Amino acid sequence: MFLHNLKYELKAVLRVKEFLIWIVIFPLALGTVFKIGFGDIYNKTEKFKAVPVAVVADENETTLRQVLEGIENSDEPLLKVTYVKEEDTKDIELDSSEAEGIIRVKDGRLTLAVGGRGMNESILKAFCDQYNSNVTVITDTAQKDPAKIQAVTEKLTRDVAACEDIKLTDGNTDYYVDYFYNLIAMTALFGGYAGLTVIINNQANLSALGARKNCSPTPKSRSVLAAICSRFIMQTGIMMICVSYLNFVLKIDFGKNLALVYLTAIMAGNLGISFGFMVGSIGKASKDSKQSLITAVSLILCFLSGLMVAGMKVTVSHYAPFFNEINPAAVISDSFYILNTLDDLNKYFVKIAVMLVMTVLFIVIGFVATRRRKYASL
User: Fold this and answer.
1) Distance (Å, whole) CA 247 – CA 29
2) What are the pLDDT digits (tens) for 84-122?
C-alpha cells in the first residue's frame, strides 16, 4: 500500500506546473542572468594581472633587460614588458591595457611616466625605486671598494624571501560565486511549495482531496509519509539538475568535491521540503496565505544570506552572529563555500549536521501538528 501511495503521489506532484516554474525554470533562468551579469567580473576587475609597461632601453642595457626578463619568466609575473623606441612613446596611451607606464633609462637609472595614481602605477614606481636603489649601492661600492662589487651584486640579486608565499586554498576564491551558492539555497527553500502540498492534499479544510483522504481507511500517517517521500524524490532530481546546469553549462566552479556538492544540494532540497511541510501543518490559514508565507520567509532568509546584496551575510554576522547559524539559506550557502575553499571538512560536516537536525525537527513538528488535527464533520 505504501509503494502504491508513493507512486500515486509522485505522479501527482510532477503534474503541478507551478513546481516546474518556481523550482526548476525560475532558478535556472536567474542563474543564467547572474552568469551574464557578473560571471566574469572577478577575473576582469579583481584578480591580479601582470602590469603592462613600455620600456625604452638600448640593446646595451643588459642589466635592466636581464632583470625584466627574470620578472616576466616568474610563475606569477609582476610586469608585462614591451620594448619600444623613444619616438614610438608618443602613440602610447597611458593608463590603458597597452601600457600603465613608460620606463626610460638615463645614466643607468630609471625614470617613470604614468597616467594615473592607481595600484598598478604604485607597483611600477616601487620597481623603479628598488632598481635605482640597487644601482646607487653598486655605484658607491665601485667608488669606495671595487673589490666588493661582485659580493654586493650577488647579495642584491639573490632571491631573498622575507616571507613565504603560502596558498590558502586551491578552491574558487571568486566571491561572486556566493550568489550561485545562495541561488541553490533559494531553489532548495522553494521546495517548500512541494512540502506544503503534502498538507493541502491531506487536510480536509484546505482541499476536497484532503477531505476524501481523511475519509479513507488508509492510515493518515502512511499517506503523509508517502507524500513526503515522493517530494523528497522529486526535489532530489531538481537539485541535481540545478547543480549540473550551473556546473556544466554555466561553468561555475564548485571546487573538486563535486560529489559532496551534489550531496549538499540534496540535503538542502530535503530541508526545503520539510520546511514547507511544517509551515503547512501549523495554523488554519488558507492555501494562498501559506504559499505567500513560504515565499516571503524564503526570500527574506536568502536576502539575509546574500542572494540580493553581496556581503549581507557578513553584516548579519556582525550584528547577530547567531542568526547565520540557524538561517537555513546561510547554512546551505556556507556548506558550498566550505567545500570550495577549505581542505578541512570538519566545519562542512557541522553544517550538514545542522541541516539534518533542521529537517528532522521540521518533519516532527509537522507530523505532530497533523496528527492532532480533528474534524467535527467532513
Assistant:
1) 14
2) 888 888 878 776 667 888 889 887 788 888 877 777 888
- CB-neighbour burial class of residue 93 (10 A; exposed 0-12, middle 13-18, buried 19+): exposed
Per the CB < 8 A criterion, the answer to whether 6 and 230 are in contact is yes
> Residue 191: what residue type?
G
Domain ranges of the chain: 2-42+174-371, 50-157
pLDDT at residue 320 greater than cutoff 60: yes
End-to-end CA distance of the chain: 24
Distance between CA atoms of 270 and 227, rounded to whole angstroms? 13
Q: How far apart are CA 214 and CA 271, in angstroms?
A: 26
Q: 3.30.70, 1.20.120, 3.40.190, 2.40.320: which CATH number matches 50-157?
A: 3.40.190
7-8-13-14 Cα dihedral, nearest 10 degrees: 60
pLDDT of residue 150: 73
Q: Is the dihedral of CA 9, 10, 15, 18 positive or negative?
A: positive
Q: What is the pLDDT of residues 158-186, one digit of tens each?
A: 544 444 445 555 556 667 788 899 999 99
Q: Is 334 exposed, middle or buried (0-12, 13-18, 19+ CB in 10 A)?
A: buried
In the block, residue with C-alpha cell 501549523: 282
Give the burial string for 259-286 (b: 16+ CB within 10 Å, else e): ebbbebbbbbbbbbbbbbbbbbbeeeee
